[in-house]
Write a structure and sequence with these properties.
The chain is α/β, with parallel strands linked by helices and 335 residues long. The chain folds into two domains: 142 residues, Medium-chain alcohol dehydrogenases, catalytic domain (Quinone Oxidoreductase, Chain A, domain 1, Alpha-Beta Complex); 140 residues, NAD(P)-binding Rossmann-like Domain (Rossmann fold), CATH 3.40.50.720. Strands 3, 4, 5, 6, 7, 14 and 15 form a seven-stranded mixed beta sheet that branches. Strands 10-9-8-11-12-13 form a six-stranded parallel beta sheet, sandwiched between helices. The two termini are 23 Å apart.
Length: 335
């Protein structure tokens, strides 16, 4: 079958460009399940893949897109039937396996989970990997002894995909949320998502050279790493869980062990790529039901493949807010 995909090519050494190309499903990689993609979403990792980052994608040409939702068209799996709506995210999708920026994907059956009742296809891609990562972080925070109302939960990088999702989900679950951002023009937007207080980067990092700071945070969703994670750990309350899922500020952590040995703070790394299917399904079930915010749609910016390069440029320059959802318009109008 013929289909369209946003295809990235290496034009010369270290030079890359993307364009919409006609492809054939016969050329897709091996796998038990062929999915007709309804929607995908744009993540920072997709933008890296689309601009030739060999740490994400080793060889080109390539179709990015680490998230996809769609309808099963072919299946050699006893578990998965033709016609079922499914989500595929994480694992190798969009990295070295052609991803959701194409109208079809072929993947191993273990990568596939069923679209939960309570979520439409487009809603699942508003969440996407960003929402799934935020949910994994919150799950770890809830595993500590800190409860809603005891101390506020901190979210760094709050206007990004994971950060904005975390703000919305935490507010929906009844937590007091403090958001850190360098984008003053997005403060009102963050308040609309549910943030109770906004801190500028300068306000947050004040006095951060001390080995310990006054205890403030009942939990932390850190999406940027570096000195932001260091500062969050130093001000974390006794026994709380601090999660880390990003390194855009820095991959280094330069601090003492005092928060860990004097305040029993736990630093928990969050990986959304290799989560096994049963755990992945349970988290998606929560997002479809008790964790689903009423204002989820307010995060959505729906585009087509023709507009994707503009959105890639925005996310790489730090000017993207909310969630970009890519609609494959020519393959049906199911929402």
């Amino acid at each position: 079958m013929k289909y369209k995909a946003y295809r990235v090519f290496e034009t010369t050494e270290d030079q890359f460009s993307g364009e919409i190309k006609e492809m054939d499903t016969e050329d897709l990689p091996e796998g038990e399940v062929l999915v007709q993609v309804l929607f995908s979403s744009l993540n920072y990792k997709d933008a890296l893949s689309a601009t030739g980052n060999k740490g994400v994608t080793r060889s080109y040409p390539h179709t990015p897109g680490i998230d996809a939702v769609g309808i099963v068209k072919q299946s050699r799996s006893e578990r998965i039937r033709i016609g079922q709506k499914v989500i595929v995210s994480g694992f190798d999708l969009g990295m070295n396996t052609d991803g959701g920026f194409g109208q079809f994907i072929r993947v191993p059956e273990d990568w596939v989970i069923f679209l939960p009742d309570g979520l439409t296809p487009i809603e699942s891609m508003i969440f996407g990997t960003a929402g799934f990562t935020a949910a994994l972080s919150i799950k770890e925070i809830l595993a500590s002894d800190i409860v809603a109302g005891k101390a506020p939960i901190l979210v760094t990088g709050a206007t990004g995909g994971v950060g904005s999702m975390a703000v919305m989900l935490l507010a929906h679950l009844g937590f007091e949320v403090v958001a850190v951002t360098g984008k003053r023009e997005r403060w009102d937007w963050l308040k609309d998502l549910g943030a109770n207080q906004i801190l500028s980067r300068e306000m947050f990092l004040e006095n951060n050279k001390r080995p310990l700071l006054k205890q403030k945070w009942g939990g932390v969703v850190d999406t940027v790493g570096g000195e932001y994670l260091e500062t969050a750990l130093k001000a974390a309350c006794y026994g709380c869980h601090v999660t880390c899922c990003g390194l855009v500020a820095s991959e280094k952590l330069e601090m003492t062990v005092f928060p860990f040995i004097l305040r029993a703070v736990s630093l928990i790394g969050i990986d959304s790529v290799n989560v096994e299917r049963q755990k992945r399904t349970k988290v998606w079930q929560k997002l479809a039901n008790e964790w689903k915010p009423k204002n989820l749609d307010s995060l959505k910016n729906e585009v087509t493949l023709e507009n994707i390069q503009t959105e890639i440029d925005k996310i790489l320059s730090g000017n993207q807010t909310g969630r970009v959802v890519i609609s494959h318009q020519n393959i049906g109008n199911e929402q």
